[in-house]
Amino acid sequence: MYPINGGPVVLSGTAHEGLSQKICNYLGIDIGNADVFKFSNDNTFVKILENVRARDVFIVQPTAEPVNDHIMEMLIMIDAAHRASAGRITAVVPYYSYARTDKKDQPRVPITGRLIADLLETAGADRFLTVDLHAGQVQGFFKVPVDELTAMPMLSKFFKEKELEAPVVVSPDIGSVKRARDFAHFMEAPLAIVEKRRTGNNDSVETHNVIGEVDGRNAILIDDEIATGGTMAAAAQGLRENGARDVFVAAAHGVFPGEAATNLAEMPEISEIVITDTVPLPKHKHHEKIRVLSIAPLIGEAITRIHHGRSVGALFPD
């Protein structure tokens, strides 16, 4: 790293320019000027159009669809900033998709979450800022400092303001119990768990028992992300079969490949889906049941604290 001068510079990849603009609005600055596009031969080109020498550069790029294109674009942007003598480069990746591949759970499979971390560091990233990793141990894949933000207090505040009668927080599977337990603590509500078994490497799931009291209660299913929605759909059906009243679905990341958003929202068992804008939700995926909260103020405040050398952890008091 070089010595840091001036205020922060926020550069945006093409994955989610709307979120980058909201972050800059919070910071009261303009988005850094850069050209990012593809040539006709599908090669990505990046040129930073302002002086970033000795500046504190934050490059915003969630690994949204198309995931691999956006990862490559991020690497090229980091390299461009590094070669332009940026004082410090922080990779701001609100959604880190390969966090799901965090271990060798089958023979002859990769640990892609570690591979992407290595690539970001090799490109020149000095820090990593993200939101609600699928697996917390992914932080250990990085040798550079990692700040993991969480959308859970924001989501719990949203539901507390709804003043639901007899709420219960539900983990859609055993692996999400810690997150659901913390959410239940924020909500001051009891916890229940849906026992789930996934069949094979596709997205089909088989729901089994509901552990905990949900009969006559308003259930809030909470997870870090919703992809195809298979887990949430099976859990919602199980909850309704066990007597739950309304079922709400909440997550930090709404990935929704293909028709997943519409399919999940049109389920009669689900009353509302609440996500944040860590991943862009295209207009054709909007639905009256889907509510999107902006994560931009939280990321903007984290950027302010990183730039001024203040605690990011203080944003989330125990």
Uncertain parts: none
Average of the residue pLDDT scores: 94
- Helix count, DSSP H or I runs of 4 or more residues: 8
Oligomer: single chain
The N- and C-terminal alpha carbons lie at a distance of 33 Å
Strand count, sense and barrel status of the largest sheet are: 7 strands, mixed
* Class by alpha and beta content: alpha/beta
Report on the architecture of this protein.
With 318 residues, this protein is α/β, with parallel strands linked by helices. The chain is built from eight helices and 14 strands. It has a seven-stranded mixed sheet, sandwiched between helices. β8, α5 and β9 form a beta-alpha-beta unit. α1 packs across α8, α2 runs parallel beside α3 and α4 packs across α5. The longest helix has 17 residues. The model has no long low-confidence stretch (mean pLDDT 94).
Keywords:
318 residues; alpha/beta; 7-stranded mixed β-sheet
Summarize the structure.
The chain has 318 residues and is of the alpha/beta class. It has helices at residues 17-27, 67-83, 112-123, 152-162, 177-187, 230-241, 260-265, 296-308, and strands at residues 8-12, 34-38, 44-48, 56-60, 88-93, 127-131, 146-149, 167-171, 191-198, 205-211, 218-226, 247-254, 272-276, 290-293.
